[in-house]
Amino acid sequence: MIEIKGLRKTYRSRGREVRAVDGVDLTVGEGDVYGVLGQSGAGKSTLLRCVNMLERPDAGTITVGGVDLTALNRKGLRLARHGIGMIHQHFALLSSRTVAGNIAFALEVTGVPRSARKERVAELIELVGLGGRADAYPAQLSGGQKQRVGIARALAARPQVLLSDEATSALDPETTDSILRLLQDLNQRLGLTILLITHEMDVVKKICHSAAVMRDGAFVESGPVAELLHRPGSTLARGLFPLSAPATLPGRTVVDVTVSGPDADTALTGLARNFDISLLEGSVETLAATRAGRWRIALPEDGTAAVEFLRARGAQVEAAA
């Protein structure tokens, strides 16, 4: 659904060049929820703005739904953007318009007739859980309600792709969870492809099927979350399941174990029944796409047999660090 190859974007700042996006390749499959994770300044927002060509890249191609956006003229790009919705961190609502008016605005600019706008707006208000709030103004809404308006507006033109620019970072944890549940529901009900950027590991944990970790304009690692969990030294795995217990114990071999899928809930109990181990730290959780667990375990000094037992069950085992 989204295919990016060799993307580069450079700015000039204080007389020097700053490479905000540095040779990024990215593939987001149809119906996928893909998270790009990184700290401020990593290049995430620039990447997202390039996807719908709010920023024109210096090099590379961006293909959405089989259409190369970088090859389009202004009119073609305007039409192509109808298939790409965008939600923003700070909502970007029109204060002088009601909930219904804000949603209708997205339909007005695409030339939808007034009669059709009214029906579509009513449908979207119910879809995002804002029934009874059609006549409210943004100043009368909570942060979560404002973001629901933003999501409804982004969906107005029935896009295939939804881009999310730190959509939950201005919200409290409970409201964040409700918005993530809404996005997950929209992904499943509408078959939406969602590309989101975030600096919050919990966002990736709760709804992303695939993810990339971005640093200094480039991807450090990328791929399906379940695969990244099993990659030795994975930044994502360590962020999703941080471990702080001692990495060494006298007379013991201390390892970090990551497992996902059907064996996530049984690998540890099976290990404990067969070997003399000590669980130092860890947990099993439900990620968006799978069950997964990560533990720090003290094995016997010669832990070869225990490691083989774990690996036979698809676990990634590496020396604790």
Automatic annotation (TrEMBL):
Gene3D superfamilies: P-loop containing nucleotide triphosphate hydrolases
Domain ABC transporter: 2-241
Domain of life (superkingdom): Bacteria
SUPFAM superfamilies in the record: P-loop containing nucleoside triphosphate hydrolases
Keyword Acyltransferase (UniProt): no
InterPro entries listed in its UniProt record: AAA+_ATPase (IPR003593), ABC_transporter-like_ATP-bd (IPR003439), ABC_transporter-like_CS (IPR017871), MetN_ABC (IPR041701), MetN_ABC_transporter-like (IPR050086), NIL_domain (IPR018449), P-loop_NTPase (IPR027417)
A GO term, aspect molecular function: ATP binding
Keyword terms, alphabetized: Amino-acid transport, ATP-binding, Cell membrane, Membrane, Nucleotide-binding, Translocase, Transport
UniProt-recorded name of the protein: Methionine import ATP-binding protein MetN
Taxonomic source organism: Paractinoplanes deccanensis
